[in-house]
Amino acid sequence: MTFFADTKKLPPDALLQLITDFRNDPSPDKIDLGVGVYQDENGKTPIFEAVELAQRRLQADEESKTYLGPLGWPGLADEVRKLVLGTTLEEKLADRFAVLPTPGSSGALKSTGTLVHRLNAAAKIWLPDPTWANHIPIFQSCDLVTKTYAYYDNDATSLDREKMYADLEKADAGDVIVVHGACHNPTGEDLSAEDWQYLTTLALEKGIVPFIDIAYQGLGQGFEEDMENVRGLLDVVPEAIICYSFSKNMGLYRERVGAALVLTENTEIAGRVQSNLNEIARRSYSMPPSYGGALAWYVLSDPDLNASWRKELEQMRKRVLSLRCQVTDALSAEFGDNRFQYIKSQNGMFSRLPLEPEQIAQLKSEASIYMAGDGRVNMCGFTPTKIARFTDLLVKVAK
Prior knowledge:
- There is one protein chain.
- This protein is α/β, with parallel strands linked by helices.
- The protein contains 14 helices and 13 strands.
- The strands form 4 sheets. Strands 2-10-9-8-7-3-4 form a 7-stranded mixed beta sheet, sandwiched between helices. It has a two-stranded parallel sheet with strand order 1-12.
- It is globular.
- It starts with 13 loop residues before the first helix and ends with a helix.
């Protein structure tokens, strides 16, 4: 018997398999609503102009490929902290933060999950239902106990606020509550300002640590607007964890650029937390790749590149909003009612259609329309022509 002979084949990741299935589909009319990336009107995921310029500068400036250490590209950690906090909070809170650039937001989730377990092995980590497919496995791989709290009501197509509050009241002191930043929940439903205030009060009264996952800053209400509730919470609570990704809002998907940020009570504790984050990185991936981090640093630190990036991001945001309106109006016209009006009121690239798994499978097999098994759709997969075809087919499947 050889060492690997008893290896069991595991099923493929459902979303990654969906990408493969779409690529292998020869239909010229296929529609990809499943992959979670921004697509332009031609179905392409573009490179930001600011990123293209950053690539040229990096090629001209870089003189060595030597190791850089756990903080990656010099200055990136500081720029990410400034981005998250904004000018006012940066002056107030900067010295209370530990920051670790990571291989994507997944690396940030893993690093901070490991930190939580190291500091409090009894801590439970609470996640919204639904959340992203990799969240629970990542935290369970950190030996954390995972719990879910109600978030979205499929029947009402809205936030299930009453059940959410009731579930969160069950959290104990020392537990961690994962909250999605603007546009981040896969349903497209964001928390309100009142919900963020509730979470702030809950954290203060019960000694709970807020854990904020941010990947879509700039694609909701606006670049600074999307951070208002996050900053309001950080301004008040003594401790918090933030994971940040540049995959979506800077288009650095394949470069895997993310960061973990930890707010602590004071500078001395921040230093100790930083040493732990550095050691956790050393034990796993050692240090983050430098290339994508360097591109992000150029865009964040150079005023002209930063302005160009935000301008293009704003154009993307407006296009997503326009697609939401177009899809809503087309579905309303086809179905003859207002059941899909919620799509127009949501934020970001995602929404969820009230479809059964059998209907989703039928759309895939009979019409080459690809979406996640829970009905999540990416609005960026639509064009005017695709909207017309999709709505026509959806009516037939729904009947």
